[in-house]
Design a protein that fits this description.
By secondary structure, the chain is mainly beta. About 0% of the residues lie in helices and about 55% in strands. The protein is built from no helices and 11 strands. It is globular.
Amino acid sequence: QVQLVESGGGVVQSGGTLTLSCAASGFDFNLYSMGWYRQLPGYNRERIATITKNGNTNYVDFVKGRFTISRDNARSTVTLQMNRLKPEDTAVYFCTIYSDITGTSLGHWGEGTQVTVSS
């Protein structure tokens, strides 16, 4: 059974840093791309960063230069380091198994972790 458990969220001041982690289990982590999405109240989840099984990364424009996605295949974890946070980054953040072919999540999600950036 696929399990994705996000952690590391919290409250931080504008300009601050948070590092999110996602512990994955129940599938062969080494074979899949992973992604981080976020969801603002009243909005759909949006993709913000992905990483292939080989470590190639991709970011949406509004986080480029501020967020860094990485993975540890030995520990089946994917991390999102978020620097220079802004109030508009406030959201629930989710990790997911990502398909480079379809450009979408494969449909497995964790519970998410809340990030709140105060101004």
